[in-house]
Design brief:
223 residues; two-stranded antiparallel sheet; 74% helix; globular; Integral_membrane_TerC; membrane; transmembrane helix
């Protein structure tokens, strides 16, 4: 009789993951996040009604549209620091975690401030007007980051090696702890996201004041 081929189920998943290119992995991650975002919106509709769900989806789409600039800047940062492709996901993972924490603090403070001082709406409106002016002024994004304020400041105050050491952020060089370019890249990305958050968070306050909806829509949009 012909011997039957056997398959070790435990090796199938690692083999499939190993065969996936970084592009395939990124597409799968985006698809999973979008599906999770939609399912979360549906759960809000079932629990709190269509109006709350509409606020969530409006906030999610608003943040997604405003995040396009973030993506462009991140690509420029990776290109400027020549970050190897296999390390970019590590930087983005830490960057997203930091962005979520900062935005959560900003949203909580923003909601509390608006509830106590309605005049703060004027300040947020001024931020949105200034952001709109920058958008319609037609200024091109910086393609050369060598003169970027955030990049220059980080390079000035953070001692950095001139080479990568795997996916490490810090290494001990001659008894002195120094950052690798990977950590510098992470810091620049974090500070860039903070700058974008100052523009985008006030916009979503015009859609809803519910901190859970604001935070959840932000988390799904930047993930």
């Amino acid at each position: 009789s012909t011997p039957r081929a056997t398959v070790n189920d435990g090796s199938v998943k690692p083999a499939l993951e190993a065969s996936m290119t970084p592009k395939d992995s990124a597409i799968r991650r985006v698809a999973l996040v979008v599906i999770a975002a939609v399912l979360f919106g549906v759960s809000i509709a079932l629990k709190d009604g269509v109006e709350k769900a509409s606020e969530y989806f409006a906030g999610y789409l608003l943040e997604q549209s405003l995040s396009v600039d973030n993506l462009f800047v991140f690509i420029l940062v990776f290109k400027y620091f020549k970050v190897p492709l296999e390390y970019q996901n590590r930087v983005l993972s830490y960057g997203i975690a930091g962005a979520v924490i900062f935005r959560a603090v900003l949203i909580i403070l923003g909601v509390a401030t608006i509830q106590s001082f309605e005049a703060v709406n004027l300040f947020f409106a001024a931020i949105l007007l200034f952001s709109s002016y920058k958008l319609f002024a037609g200024d091109e994004e910086e393609s050369d980051l060598s003169d970027n304020f955030i990049v220059k400041t980080c390079q000035k105050f953070i001692p950095v090696t001139d080479y990568y050491d795997g996916d490490r952020f810090l290494i001990n060089q001659d008894g002195i702890w120094k950052a690798t370019p990977l950590l510098l890249t992470l810091v620049v990305i974090e500070l860039s996201d903070i700058a974008f958050a100052v523009d985008s968070i006030p916009a979503i306050f015009g859609v809803t004041r519910d901190p859970l909806i604001i935070l959840s829509s932000n988390i799904f949009a930047i993930s």
